[in-house]
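Honest question from a wet-lab person: if I give you the sequences of every part of a complex, can you actually get the arrangement of the whole thing, not just the pieces? Trying it with mine:
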Amino acid sequence: MVLDVEKAARWIHRLNGKIQEQKQYLTDLDQAIGDGDHGINLARGFQEAANAISANSYQDLGALCKDVAMTLIGKVGGASGPLYGTAFMKLSMAWKGQKEIDREALAKGFKDALEGLKMRGKAQPGDKTMIDVWEPAVAYMAGEGPLNGEELASVAKEKMEGTKELEAKKGRAAYLGKRSIGHIDPGAASSYLLFSTLAEVIGEGESA
Amino acid sequence: MKKLINNPDRVVEEMIEGMVAAYPNRIRRLPGTTVLVRKDAPVQGKVGLVSGGGSGHEPSHAGYLGKGMLDAAVCGEVFTSPTPDQVYEAIKAVDSGKGVLLIIKNYTGDIMNFEMAAEMAEAEGIKVAKVVVNDDVAVENSTYTTGRRGIAGTVFVHKIAGAMAERGASLEEVEAAAKKVIENVRSMGMALTPCIVPAAGKPGFELGEKEMEIGMGIHGEPGIEKTEIRPADEIAQTLTDKILDDLKLGEKDKVAVMINGLGGTPLMELYIINRKVAEILKGKNIEVHDTFVGNFMTSLEMAGCSVTLLKLDEQLTELLDAESDAIAFKR
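Yes, you can. This is the full assembly:
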C-alpha cells in the first residue's frame, strides 16, 4: 500500500501547510512574471480544501480527492483553480471506491491527472508551466525501479528549478516573452510543493 | 482613486444587488451565486445562451439578458474569470432540455473555467456547445499566444445567436450562427487613460498626459504601440484600416458597425469617431446596414473606444434585425 485515505488526508494538510508558509514566495514569483496572485489564490483554496476534508471522515480516496477538487474549483480562481481542480478531479475518478492504493494505481491516477492538465491548460513540457514538473514527476512514479520518496521530491525540485531559464509560452508570462527568463514559474513551484509533500507522506510509516 | 463605491472588495456583489433591484421583472439572481438569469429561465423549447467573464465590462454581459439575447450571465470578480462552479450553475439554470451554448471570450482563464463547467454539465447529461470569440485584430503572435482576444464583437454574437435561439432553432443551428458571426466580425480598440481596478486601488499601467495606446485590450493589456495622441480622424483611420486589412470586404459588401466606448469616453467623441468610420466605408463603397454607438463592452472608466465591423449576409442581417428585449439592447 502506497497511499491510503489517512495518508492522503495527511498529504493535503501538509501541502496546505507548505502553501501557507510559502504564500509570499509564490506570490513574489507570480509578481515577476504573472499577475501576482498565485500564492494568495492557492493559500485561500488549499485552506478551504484542508478545512473541507477535516470536516469529514473518508473510506474512499476518490471521495476525498473529489472534495479537494470541488473546493479548489470554487475557491482558487484564476487559471490555477481549474488546473489543480482538474488534476484532483482526475485523481478522484481513478481512485473511486478505493480505501488504499498500490504503486500502479498511484501512477495511473497521476497519469490521468497529467493528461487532464494538458487538456485543460494546453501546455506541453518546455512551455515553462506546472507541466514541466508534473511530466517528469509522473514519469518517475510510473517508471521501473522502486518508488523512493526522496527521489521523487528531488526530481520535482530539479525540474522546478529548471523552469528558471525557460521562456514562457503559456499563461500571462507568455506576454513577457524573453523577459520571463530568469524567473522560476510559480505553477512549477507550487507543483513541487505538491510532489514533495506527497513524497514525504509516502515515505512515512503508518499514522503516528 | 475617486469612485462611486463603498467597499472595494464588494463592488461585484453590490453591483449584482443593484441590477436586480433595478430590473426585478427582467432578471433574477441564482441564490448563492454570482449568476444572473432571465426571469423566465429556463425558457421551454429554446436553446439556453450563457456568457460572462470578469466584471468591469458592463453592460457586458448581464446587460444582454433578455428575450432574443442571453439567458444567463456569470459575473466574475473585476477582470477575473468566474469559477467553473458558477458557470455550471448558470448552465443548469437555463437548460430546458434543448441544450446550452456557451459564448466565451478568448482569454485563457475564461476558456479553462467555461470548458470545465461544460464538462461538469455534460456529466449530468446536459448538451453543451461552446464558441470562442476572438475578434480583436490588434495583437496576434502566430506561434506562441493563445490567439486573439475577444472584445466588443462578442455583443454581435450574443445578438445573432440569441435571435436564432429565440426562434426555436436547434443547438447545432445556434452554434453555427454564432460561429458565422465570429468568422465575420473584427474589432480593434485604443485607450487614452488607464482604469483602476477597485481592489487594486491604483492603475495597472501609465499613460502620459499626451499619450495613447493603440490596440490596448479591455483589461489594459498591451497593444501595438504607445504614441502621442492624434486627432480622432487619424485614430479612426488607424483602427478601421487594421480591421479592413483583416476582414476582406469588397465593394457593395454590407456591414454592421459598432463604435464602442470603453467607459470613460463621452458619447460626443464616439460620434466623432463614427463620422470618420462612416466616411471611410462610404469611400470604399461598403454599405452600412446599421450602426451602434455607445458603451457595449467597457473597461471600467478607461477612456478610449473600439471599432467593430461585422460582415453581413442575408441570414446575419435578418438575425441582427430581429426583435430583442435585453436590458441594454432593445430592437
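Two things worth pointing out. The radius of gyration of chain A is 16 Å. The longest strand of chain A covers residues 3-4.
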